[in-house]
Amino acid sequence: MSKTHLLVISILTIVSLSPLFRDGFYTSSDGENHLIRIARFSSLLAGGNLYPRWDPVLNHGRGYPLFNFTYPLPYYVSSLFHFTNLSVVDSLKATFVLFTGASVLFFYLWTRHLPATVLFLFTPYRFVNLYVRAALGEVAFLGILPLCFLCIDKKNHPLLVISLSLLIFSHLQLSLIFIPILFLYSLTNHSGKAFTTSLLLSLLVSSIFWLPALYLTGFTKYFSVHQFIPSQHLPTLRQLVYSPWGFGFSRSGLADDISFQLGLATWVVLIISSLNISHLRSSRKLVLVTVWSSLVFMSTNLFGLWDWPIFQSIQFPWRLLMIPLIFIPYVFSGLNTSKTFTVFVIILAIYVNRNHIRTNLPQFVSIPDSQFITSQQTATSTPDEFMPKVFNSSTSYIFSSSPVIIISQSISLLAVVLYGIIFSSHYRSR
Q: Highest taxon of the source (predicted)?
């Protein structure tokens, strides 16, 4: 890695994260929920619960199975920061910094292209997730995703198993979207069989999370309390080109208080690369088609697909903005253009995002951790979405020690042992 490139990337990343170095947190869609979750998760860990599932304090002291269903990786990382005596607020911000830095570093290692990395960093949807939504799971997911592509390119299958497992632990719904894309990408690299093997092993390793989450959902009110109907949150083409920056929420119809724009520089690269698609390598042709498909899919209810249960779990179609966020810069890295055009794209990307590197009103300044640790909310955006259908003496058992949980833990443990056996013998034979 070029030291100059590393220096440039580091400086620009610090600039993009500068709002996180101020005191307190900021008003956001999910920030308060994450602060409560970090406080409760770390408290349960400190009490000896190595994989928290049932929290006896949440839901007004009745208990709540929140951690059976929410992605665990970001909360393990945040808890590690919290155990170093950082406050809950600073632990959340440190986790944002870590995963954002990781995403930029892994993307650069994947593409070895500084201008593309700058475009990847300065993309509006990244700042929506950081400073508008405080979408911890999606920030963590983006921190791991480029590593998966890097492992496929390098044919590093041991690390691919780990990265795929971490991907699933960071955001299950987005994993369902990107795993098929990763598989298709591996086919362009003639490593589809190895990817499939790595994926199967990673599914076994991560079964401690996704298996109980899928099975135990039926014991909750999840399917009866949904507030969000995906087909009512389709961004229009106009919104994808430009929509005013806001710090509110996605609303039904066009009355959104949040921006869904791809970014002017991103659109320029997308159009130019589409006009030159015949000159691109097969992997970049694939992702370019994937980008256009995602734009159509997220902006229309094609064939009523957003009414299907599997897609309803995504909640918001505009979450697919993660696809152009990573893939358009990747295409840019393989685009044969003049130095003038490259410099123009970099300057444009930084300039049009200059006002997106900011937060809304300050919040939780000088608030003690005890406020979050003793919170009795449910810490979910949709009220009661994981509320047990029945509360009785066996409710906590169902969500913390039932057979499906014991089985999933055993599968994960055996998968970790199998992983060690397979790859230790692999390295000994080399």
A: Bacteria
